[in-house]
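Quick review question:
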């Protein structure tokens, strides 16, 4: 399981500061990757990032499908940022 960031993200970076495993990164370039993204292979599902988000844009992946089915594609997007996209900054 992993937490995921979805469409509501405003890129303020608050979640990055609290992640104990540093698995949240800003999407670059922003035009193509408009949110911050969580690496599903590293996230330990601690939930620390959730209360930090000012716009409530982070959910456990399993809950996203139930609460916001219109945004469920974000589960693949978060994974793809690391598997096919730029991933962690150099
Ligand atoms: S749930 Fe925990 S480990 Fe996963 S992204 Fe949020 S702060 Fe990081
Ligand atoms: S705290 Fe929320 S709005 Fe800010 S970067 Fe993280 S997910 Fe995006």
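Suggested answer, residue by residue:
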């Amino acid at each position: 399981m992993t937490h995921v960031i979805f469409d509501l993200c405003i890129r303020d970076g608050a979640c990055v500061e609290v992640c104990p495993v540093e698995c949240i990164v800003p999407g670059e370039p922003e035009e193509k990757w408009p949110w911050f993204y969580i690496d599903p292979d590293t996230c330990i599902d601690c939930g620390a990032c959730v209360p930090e988000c000012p716009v409530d844009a982070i959910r456990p992946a399993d809950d996203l499908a139930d609460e916001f089915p219109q945004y469920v594609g974000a589960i693949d997007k978060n994974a793809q940022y690391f598997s096919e996209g730029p991933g962690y900054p150099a």
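Why it works: The pocket of iron/sulfur cluster (ligand 2) is lined by residues 5, 9-15, 36, 52-53, 55, 57-58 (CB under 6 Å). The longest helix spans residues 74-83.
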